[in-house]
Amino acid sequence: MARIIYVEDDDLAGLLVQEVLTEAGHLVGVIGHGTLAYETIAFKKPDLVILDRALPGLPGMEILKRLRQTPATYLTPILMLTAKRGEAMADEALRAGADDYLIKPFTPEDLVQRVEAALATKQFTAGRRAR
What we know:
By secondary structure, the protein is α/β, with parallel strands linked by helices. Helices cover 51% and strands 18% of the residues.
């Protein structure tokens, strides 16, 4: 079971992702404001962060950049989950440090598969660093 924070200001999308990932065995908290989300992530240090791009307060891209510049969250897997389409948008997020970029609408299976892949990569990296 992974502790996941999903940063999403759309209540329906938040509930959907929370339900899908809870059924997959994870604990998911949803935060609808970028500034509050950044502060919570920095304090709680979840196993995975899922970010929307467009948020009140800090936008998702700014949260991503700050998390990658903070030693305590530098290696936290981050999945961008957004309605913002386009190769340039995905490239920007991946260059800024996102581990994956998923576009809404998505299938529950695809979301779970990408979350599991990000968590497996984190576990592998943590194991290599412990040696």
